[in-house]
Amino acid sequence: MRFGFLTVLALFFLCSINAQQGFQKEVDEIVERNDSLWNSSEKTIVFTGSSSIRLWKDLQERFPEQHILNTGFGGSQASDLLYHLQNLVLRYQPKKVFIYEGDNDIFAKKKPKKVIQTTQAIIQRIKKENKNTNIILISAKPSIARWGLRGKYRRLNRKLEKLTLSDSNLYYANVWDIMLDGRKVKKDLFVDDGLHMNAKGYGLWYEKIKIFMK
């Protein structure tokens, strides 16, 4: 992956300007909770990203044979994850990292190209710690609330998938297609806000994610 260290460094400091205060309290609480759960003698899998991860409450129960930590923080964008990567991911020395970011970025009118650049910086920092870490990029999901932005989400997903072709330890989990009924989003997968998923929605995600648990 050709992405220079100076570029990563510049992105990190640019991201830190906006991210360093907004999520600090929540990140501190996440760290406190996960530090009490983490067993450093076991191979760890970290799920991180925005509220679609944060609200996946039964991750450990769905994958009982794995040691899983959920470090999702609601409302986050890729730049926020980049800034807090040390505390939310790297400190747990994971063998696998599942990342869900980009949903809020697009809603905040960031261009897909910008999201990909930040995602590249996240990947490079993880691989600097351990080049053998498997990283699974979860596609942006369709939703009722943001269906008007579907074109931009599709462009982002194509770029995310293309990005994973550059490294044998990068994978793409496509949750977009399984949440569609033809050309429409399945409306029975969401809670009342039309954005966050209910148990049925997470059931579909489980079917897609379990492939990467082997």
From TrEMBL:
This is GDSL-type esterase/lipase family protein. Keywords: Signal. Residues 55-203 form the SGNH hydrolase-type esterase domain. The keyword Iron does not apply. Residues 1-21 form the signal peptide. It comes from Croceitalea marina. It comes from the Bacteria. PANTHER family: SGNH HYDROLASE-TYPE ESTERASE DOMAIN-CONTAINING PROTEIN, THIOESTERASE 1/PROTEASE 1/LYSOPHOSPHOLIPASE L1.
